[in-house]
Amino acid sequence: MVEYPFLLDEFTLLLKKNGLKFTRQREAILKALYEHDGHFSPEEIHRFVSEANDDLNIGIATIYRTLTLLEDAGLAESISFGKDGKKYEIGLKKHHDHLICTACGTIVEFSDDVIEARQEAIAEKYHFQMTDHTMKIVGLCADCQTKH
Amino acid sequence: MVEYPFLLDEFTLLLKKNGLKFTRQREAILKALYEHDGHFSPEEIHRFVSEANDDLNIGIATIYRTLTLLEDAGLAESISFGKDGKKYEIGLKKHHDHLICTACGTIVEFSDDVIEARQEAIAEKYHFQMTDHTMKIVGLCADCQTKH
DNA sequence: CTTGATGCAAAATATTTGCATGCTC
DNA sequence: GAGCATGCAAATATTTTGCATCAAG
Question: Residue A99 and which of A22, A135, B15, B22 are 20 to 30 A apart at CA?
Answer without folding.
Answer: B15
